[in-house]
Amino acid sequence: MTQRGSILIYAALGIAAVGVLWGLYSAVDSRGYQRGVAETETAYAARDARQRAEFDRELSQVRAEKDRIEQDHAKRVADIAVQHAKEAENARRKHAAMVDGLRTGAIQLRGVDTRCPAEPGQGGSAQTGSPAGGSNDSAGGVIFGPLDAAFLVDLAAEADAVAGQLTACQAVIRADRGQDGR
């Protein structure tokens, strides 16, 4: 063999060796790459699972706190409604008792007569008239008649009912804002 032939053989062997090494490297590197991808995906999946579990735990705590706050608020509003209903019933009973007393004559409403006195007549004395539906009392003041008294008592009861509703609404607002002292 000539020197030229031996160089070709060595070159062919070198190229074959490089090809074999390249093939081995590709096989090993390919398996390493795939293993690295699998390990990375596993690590990311584990990290994501931990984060999701932590998020779910925090979310359940926040929801439990929200539910507790809503239940507490609903209880406070229900307590306010019960208190308002009791007060409204007590006011209704007082009003009914007042009206019954006015009808039977056990209760009389007395007001202050704020009218100007009549000018003296020819006889030199002032004449005082009694208001419509009422009479002058010797104790000073006007006693209202049954219709006038019933109107005034009904008007006062209606105003008390509105004030009671306003008070209940204010209590609900204070409870909403957390200013009810609880």
Lay out the secondary structure.
Blueprint: H1 3-104, E1 110-111, E2 135-136, E3 142-143, H2 146-177
Antiparallel strand pairs: 1-3, 2-3
User: How many strands, which pairing sense, and closed or not: the largest β-sheet?
Assistant: 3 strands, antiparallel
Taking strands numbered 1, 2, ... along the chain, how are they ordered across the largest sheet? 1-3-2
Number of strands: 3
Mean pLDDT: 82
The low-pLDDT segments are 123-133
Calculate the terminal CA-CA distance, rounded to whole Å: 107 Å
Q: Compute the number of structural domains.
A: 1
Beta fraction: under 5%
Descriptive account of the structure:
- The chain has one domain (3-113, 133-177).
- Helix content is 74%, strand content 3%.
- The chain has helices spanning 3-104, 146-177; strands spanning 110-111, 135-136, 142-143.
- Strand 2 (135-136) and strand 3 (142-143) form a beta hairpin.
- It starts with a helix and ends in a 5-residue tail after the last helix.
